[in-house]
Amino acid sequence: MRVAWITGASSGIGEALARHLAEEGWAVLAQARRQDRLESLAQAYPGRIRPFVGDVRDPEACHEAVQEALRTFGRLDAVIANAGISHRALVEEVALSVLRDVFEVNFWGAVHAIRAALPEVRARRGWIVGVSSVAGFRGLPARSGYSASKFALNGFLEALRTELYGTGVCVLTAAPGFTRSEIREKALTATGELQGESPLPEARLMSAEAVAAALYRAMLRRQKYLVLTTQGRLTVWLNRLFPGWLDGLVYRHFLREPESPLRSAASGQR
Prior knowledge:
It is built from 9 helices and 7 strands. The protein has helices at residues 12-23, 35-44, 59-73, 96-124, 144-163, 208-220, 230-241, 243-255, 262-268; strands at residues 3-7, 27-32, 49-53, 78-81, 127-131, 170-175, 225-227. Helix 1 (12-23) links the parallel strand 1 (3-7) and strand 2 (27-32).
């Protein structure tokens, strides 16, 4: 039985991944900060999912998670660094503390988890998965810290993949497009408060379950990259070929969002 450790497993893509892997016969150490959510998830898959309450911003908590996986299941084949937060505010308005918070979770949280799991995963010739974003290939306005953290994660994973060349370890950079989840409701404002409401039509976005299934297929195929949704792949491709033209397209797209921060910037330019 293979064993995966998933961070950010209490909702969204992380929860969907935990369920999907458990249904595929894996055992899962599901880590997040919300104990009630994790316990509910574990009760649905007795013996398959082990809850672990811990904050990825704390490297010691990540080391303890690895030990918990070994105590419970006797091995660790994969680490899926999925925990993440977002924000929505202009660069000139967002508090620096908000940008640091986003980096602490999205980048350093992934680094802490991957470093803690690396010896076990390498011994198993297993999987290291970083759940990044299309925003890690194309910067998004009013999400500068989020985009920067995902660009940093992409570079880290690429460097690690090269370091592990020939070891048999699969390093997968997974970049979902817009996915139905709580990430926009819990996105931070310029002052660090929760946004509370998604500016996107959530019902029309890709489901977390579909993302989990695609990510699992990519793991089995030992892919290096996974970029999801037609819009996401087109965005990455166009940004390589026509970055200036895409600036305008992306700007107009996000300007149409409800209560877009770009509107205040546009008003100031008149």
